[in-house]
Amino acid sequence: MIPDSKKTMVSLNFKKSLTGINGFDEISDGGIPKNRPTIIYGNTGSGKTIMSMEFLVKGAVKYNEPGVFMSFEETVSELIHNMESVHFGLTSLIKSKKLYIEYLDVEKSQVVEAGSYDLEGL
Q: Which of 32, 36, 51, 80 has the fewest C-beta atoms under 10 angstroms from its C-beta?
């Protein structure tokens, strides 16, 4: 007999979007939740930008789905330069309008923190 908590987990059957990232779709049982926001969380250097960019690049190349990348730290030219080492071909994707990258320069003086929050529990 399956415990109630296991039944709930087994019965959760929502649609997923394939990421095209080697190995990730297999270990995540089909990709990331479709039509839901997904947070990629981690310390500096943990691979958040590369994973996000690979998801967008694979979506554009393998699944013909255009993507948008919003950056708050790296400029467009810095991102393009940094991603050259993994051969994502961002320039051609941008030119063919399959990828759009926007850099938002937010000054710390413009940021207002409304309440406390902590993502550690995620």
A: 36
- Positive or negative, the CA dihedral 60, 63, 68, 73 is negative
* Runs of H (alpha helix) within 12-89: 24-27, 48-62, 76-83
122 vs 118: CA distance, rounded Å:
9
Least confident of 38-42, 92-96, 105-109: 105-109
pTM: 0.76
R_g of the chain computed on alpha carbons: 18
Q: What is the tens place of the pLDDT at every residue in 7-37?
A: 445 446 789 999 999 999 999 999 999 989 8
Quick check: 55 and 83 in contact, CB under 8 A? Answer: no
d(CA 67, CA 31): 16
